[in-house]
Amino acid sequence: MNHVLHSFQRYILIIFILMTYASQAQTRLSDTDTSRIKQKSIRNFLKSQIDSGVVNFEDFKPSVDERTDSSQFDSNIHLFRLRQAQAPLRQAYLTAHPATVWQGKIVSCGFIYSPVSKRVIYPDDKFPGLETGQIFFVEMRVLFGLVKFPVCFMVTQIDESKHTIAFSYVSSGASKGAQTIMLTDDAKSGTKIIHSSIHQTENILRDKTLYPIYHRKAIKEVHQNIKNILETQ
Questions:
Q1: Which residues is 112 bridged to in the sheet?
Q2: Cβ neighbours, 10 Å, residue 166
Q3: Is 133 left (phi over 0), alpha (psi -120 to 50) or beta?
Q4: Residue range 20-77, pLDDT digits in tens
């Protein structure tokens, strides 16, 4: 009888340890130090996500995956050319700090969440490099900065063999969609960057008019920042 009791107690202890470990492996949105986030729209987005039931960063899910029917989405493809060789350019995309890359008149990086280290990375923190599952919290500024809104997206794929990086807006955000950056050798010397996106919101007029204009402005800032980083190294 005592043997059975001890076995049962050990079983309960193991379950308790596993549950404790699982809870510790989650990072709560409420633990974010909002005093280190300068963008009010991002602070408000965090609060709205918590209020809607998103407790941990691990609760965020991509709005687009391999099962998504993208035929109902609007699509855009933009082409950029940089004189830099593909290898150092690709390395810059994988290692440059998002606070530097996603920074300009249109875009402003608030912070990043790393699923590997289970921690929030603020603009003045060291960046470990791009990781699948990382979540970016970025502010968009449109109409000369009069309108500011948050954009939250997740890194869904890093394919070094195909030289592609894919992102998806999170499913609990206002926009649904995904973006892919592909680097290819440019016959005219340098590297050709193909930045494709699909998107969908409840505002059809905005999807057809404002989104394509400001999306191009935003990603142009991003790719220009990568170029500037390489030129200053």
A1: 121, 136
A2: 19
A3: left
A4: 444 446 799 999 999 999 999 999 999 999 999 999 999 999 999 888 888 888 888 9
Alpha-helical (H) ranges within 32-177 are: 40-51, 86-95, 98-101
Query: For residue 6, what pLDDT is reported?
Result: 53
The structure's pTM equals 0.85
Count of helices and strands (H, E) across the chain: 6, 8
Q: Which residue, 93, 76, 101, 97, is CA-closest to 191?
A: 93
- What is the structure's pLDDT at 7? 54
SS3 state of residue 58: helix
Q: What is the pLDDT of residue 22?
A: 41
Which tokens sit at 56? 């941990």
Q: Are 200 and 168 in contact (CB under 8 A)?
A: no
What phi and psi values does residue 202 have, to the nearest 5 degrees? Answer: -85, -5
- Res. 18: pLDDT tops 50: no
CA 132 centroid distance within chain: 9
Give how far Cα 14 sits from Cα of 18, 20, 22, 24, 203, Å. Answer: 6, 10, 12, 15, 50
Strand arrangement, sheet containing 147-159: 74-82, 191-200, 176-185, 164-169, 147-159, 135-142, 107-114, 119-121
d(CA 106, CA 218): 6
CB 180 within 8 A of CB 196: yes
Q: How confident is the model over 121-127, as a mean pLDDT?
A: 96
